[in-house]
Amino acid sequence: MIQLLKTNIGRLRIIAILEGISLLILIFIAVPMKHFLNNPVGTRIMGPIHGALFLLFLFNTISVGIDQNWKFKTTTWKVLIACIIPFGTFYIDRKILRKAQQA
Q1: pLDDT > 90 in the chain, percent
Q2: Domain assignment of residue 63, yes or no
Q3: In 3D, which of 57, 65, 68, 63 has the Cα closest to residue 90?
Q4: Distance (Å, rounded) from C-alpha 85 to C-alpha 42?
Q5: How many domains does the chain have?
Q6: Could you tell me if residue 71 is left (phi over 0), alpha (psi between -120 and 50 degrees) or otherwise beta?
Q7: How far apart are the first and last CA of the chain?
Q8: Taking a C-beta distance cutoff of 8 angstroms, is the pair 85, 16 a contact?
Q9: Tens-place pLDDT, residues 53-98
Q10: Angle at 73 between CA 88 and CA 92, to 5 degrees
Q11: Residue 103: which residues within 8 A CB-CB, separation 6 or more?
């Protein structure tokens, strides 16, 4: 884990996992609690957390894309889109980010 924090792409991988987890908690736990149980506490807590992680992911993706000379049409857009699809950041971590870090 400490090794991941030493590089920009490693930090992006950690942010991607955290962002993916926060999206899943929001979609599958907090939002159903709000609508079916009339209990908005989950969205009040997870909404801002997910929002901050989402923005952090976007900014870090752009930064890593510039640093790694990713072409927007082939790599960067895929990583950016992943954060709005449930389980997308986990897939991108496995298919793109892990390989880019090993290179």
Answers
A1: 86
A2: yes
A3: 57
A4: 20
A5: 1
A6: beta
A7: 18
A8: no
A9: 999 999 999 999 999 999 999 999 999 999 999 999 999 999 999 9
A10: 20
A11: none
Q: Give the closest residue to 13 by CA, choosing from 22, 21, 4, 26.
A: 4
Of 15, 19, 25, 17, which is closest to residue 45 (Cα–Cα)? 25
Which pLDDT belongs to residue 1? 63
Q: Is residue 2 part of a domain?
A: no
Q: Which amino acid is at 26?
A: L
Q: Find, among 27, 5, 3, 7, the residue nearest to 83 by Cα.
A: 27
User: Domain span at residue 79?
Assistant: 8-102
* Nearest one of 69, 84, 83, 67 to 16, comparing CA atoms: 83
- Is 60 part of any domain? yes
**For 15-62, how does the pLDDT look when each residue is reduced to its tens digit (9 = 90+)?**
999 999 999 999 999 999 999 999 999 999 999 999 999 999 999 999
In a domain, 65, yes or no: yes
Task: Assign 1 to helix, strand or coil.
Answer: coil
pLDDT surpasses 90 at 5 = no
